[in-house]
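Notes from hallway chat w/ T.B., transcribed later so I don't forget. T.B. wanted the structure written out for a chain they're using in a teaching module, and asked if we could keep both sequence and structure tokens in one place. Agreed to drop them here.
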Amino acid sequence: MCGRYKFTRADRAFLAREFGLREEDVPDFADELDNAPGSWRSVIGTEGGQRKWTSMRWGYVMSIEGKKKVVFNAKVENLTKLSKWRRVLRNRCIIPASGFYEWKRVNGKAGAKYEITVRDQPVFGFAGLFDDTINPKTREPERVFWIITTPANPLFAEFHDRQPAILERGSYDAWLAQSGPPPLHLLGVFPAERMIITEVAEIKEARPILRKHLEEDEPMLPGLF
């Protein structure tokens, strides 16, 4: 699962090179230290044939089997099985990140917090999907995204059985390409030997919107939207 991640500021020229953008299209932004579902976050996509840096809301309330659920991850195994994902498979995006977080469970309860980063890669990209929706509370149109997850590698399996789909640097163009079938072959399990896992302190000032971990289809928390 991916329920929290961070994206810290970096040199604009570096970010432009990493994600195939023009330097002037990389905006100034504040450090996103403890991103939680329900918040607006940096996303890279394609619009009118051009690579674009934009902002979208992470996750959305969906009706599943007659019940409202908050969904912020999409399991790779379900992308071609479930109509809710097949419908948006052409709406692919990249979520830039510097690291993500997971908690080691002790006796069924969340224990120490750990940060996962990518070896020799200060910024990387999660594979994501997006859609245009209507906010159920404000009734205003907005664009939302979901982070795709894969089964966990042996190292990350100590924390959770799912991990975010991290794209290889050289696969960004193929993932965002609008022609041809969806390149699902790019969504492999990111290898354990390229992950660095470090225990970190909780960031008190982050005030995440979701105060506990949710599975992909667990019930909605009141006040998310």
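Follow-up for T.B.: The radius of gyration is 17 Å. Might be a good example for the class.
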